[in-house]
Amino acid sequence: MLSNSIDQEIKSAMLAKDQAKLRGLRAIKAAFLLAKTEKGASTDIDEETEIKLLQKLVKQRKESADIYKSQGREDLFNIEQEEISVIEQYLPAQLSRDEIKVIIENIIQEMGGATQKEMGKVMGAANKALAGKADGKLIAEIVKSLLS
Question: What residue intervals traverse the membrane (predicted)?
Fold first, then answer.
């Protein structure tokens, strides 16, 4: 499980006095602990849930970074960027825009050609096929462009 390796990484970051890595790892650990307690029991969370949590953490930091950038707060922007780079190390490799487009085109072909009305069905299948490998916003953008 990823949560076990995170604990080891936190210890290493503390010894190395790597504050950026330590902040990112602590955020991951906090998210995992919160998810475990939300389910009621102290059971481990599965890999799919871990990936969703990591994606959520990255998304939150990107949104914060955009706000800080627009307000001219480079110091806070840089902190968010550092944490994003730490968290992304634990995510599966993200697909390129072209790779995503090919997968979505295949999904549309399997459905026998979809129209704008069937966007929800296509999105559902695409999100399932690309879980953890692509950003939801990008998937929606590509589906919309292919169906229009």
Answer: none
pLDDT per residue as tens digits for the range 70-86:
999 999 999 999 999 99
Domains along the chain with CATH numbers: 2-88 (1.10.1510.10), 97-147 (1.10.10.410)
Does residue 87 contact residue 27 with C-beta atoms inside 8 Å? yes
CA end-to-end distance (rounded Å), the chain: 42
Single out the residue of 53, 55, 65 nearest to residue 136, CA to CA.
Answer: 55
Residue corresponding to tokens 């706000």: 67
Return d(Cα 48, Cα 21) in angstroms, integer: 23
Own/partner pairs, 54-60, CB within 8 angstroms, 24+ separation:
54/28, 54/87, 54/90, 54/91, 55/91, 55/132, 55/135, 56/31, 57/27, 57/28, 57/31, 57/87, 58/84, 58/87, 58/88, 58/91, 59/135
